[in-house]
Amino acid sequence: MIIRSVSPEERPAVSLPLQQYAFTASPGPGFPFDPRYHHENAVLAAFDGERALACATRIPMTQNVRGRVLAMAGVAGVAAAPDARRGGHVRALVDRHLADAVAEGFAVSALYPFRTSFYERFGYVSLPEPARVTIDPASLTPLLRADLPGEVTWHPVADAYDDVRDLHTRLQRTTHGVAMRPAGNAAWVREANESWAAVARVAGEVVGALVYKITGHHGELAGGPLLAVDPHARALLLGFAARHVDQIDTVTLTPHPADRPELWSTDIAVTAAVRSTPTDVFAPMARVLSVPGLAGIDVGTGEVTVAVDDPLTGGTWRLRSDGGTLAVAASDAEPEAVLTGHGLSALVYGVLDPAELPVRRFAPTLPAPVADRLRALFPPVTPWLVEPF
Ligand SMILES: CC(C)(COP(=O)(O)OP(=O)(O)OC[C@H]1O[C@@H](n2cnc3c(N)ncnc32)[C@H](O)[C@@H]1OP(=O)(O)O)[C@@H](O)C(=O)NCCC(=O)NCCS
């Protein structure tokens, strides 16, 4: 088996057929491929002679990790030919992508798994899945009587694309977990123009956006991530959804996973659903690729020396709060705790309390005083990836 990179020009013949077979109804036309949206991506394939057996894509993205925007390797398009599965080709491809990402200076990586146990083998840990929220629009109509300065305008997404992406960029600067695809890769949303966008402004400044579709008369206003800088912006967008009360039966959207939609208004009729099954899992996963690459993220207080058992981030590290941001140094001192790569990533992303780590076998043991110090250094915080890829 030989692994090599696949150029954008080669992809329609080499990697696309594997991805079409894996991810679409077949035989059939599959999804279209336009090299304009893929030139930033790195695609690797495993070959037996001329034949590609498996492929995997790495998208150069960014992600806010505890207040700092870091280079993030987004992994996607992972597929093997059916007769070549369970042959170790995908293991080799993902290992190579992660090693390349480390060499290129990426600090973290994220993906949307088909099965979490598969990617746990590569050191990824699950992030919370944002609830899919379904609201009766009639219960939002009181928001229309609220005296909220500002306006919401309605557009084909192509016309509002720059406003939506600018807002996403601004939210990424302040919101833990928010990821973004590079401009070229993301531009197909504008070119395809298959959605509407509602854009909220206050004093001329964009403060909220909801990209959505209408599924039919008395159907659904099916929204994506609810992007809003504050509750006022959120209420403007919900008020816009309320204007559809005589047209559609339900409003669906995805707010920040720490949000509590049942508290958004009095008498609101809302269901928030999170589903997790071994397959068909939509909750993202993420991992740290470089411990020194985390320097400068926002942390709590104190310091701790940990040994990390992981092929990419392994070693003994002194992690210290330097006035509220993380200082990292390799250390020869006796570690106070041993963590797997998952354990480290779970603490950095804020998704597991230190007491959970031995339960999940992400740390062999963790004495309570060390757990307290790790908790003080990495206080809980809920990540929200936002970006699909
Ligand atoms: C998922 C898929 C890419 C796996 O390819 P594969 O060729 O079987 O993978 P590999 O043989 O390299 O296996 C890699 C590791 O995962 C393990 N593994 C394979 N399938 C697994 C599964 N369904 N669940 C858990 N672990 C699995 C293997 O045992 C191996 O572990 P090891 O290296 O520790 O021994 C392939 O089945 C596929 O193309 N599926 C359809 C498309 C898809 O779902 N892609 C994933 C998108 S996120």
UniProtKB/TrEMBL annotation:
Annotated InterPro entries: Acetyltransf_17 (IPR041380), Acetyltransferase_Eis (IPR051554), Acyl_CoA_acyltransferase (IPR016181), GNAT_dom (IPR000182), SCP2_sterol-bd_dom_sf (IPR036527)
PROSITE patterns: GNAT (PS51186)
Leader sequence residues: none
Gene Ontology biological-process annotations: aminoglycoside antibiotic catabolic process
Domain N-acetyltransferase, first and last residues per copy: 1-147
GO molecular function terms attached to this record: aminoglycoside N-acetyltransferase activity
SUPFAM superfamilies, A to Z: Acyl-CoA N-acyltransferases (Nat), SCP-like
Matches recorded under Pfam families: Acetyltransf_17 (PF17668), Acetyltransf_9 (PF13527)
Protein name per UniProt: Putative acetyltransferase
Annotated source species: Longispora fulva
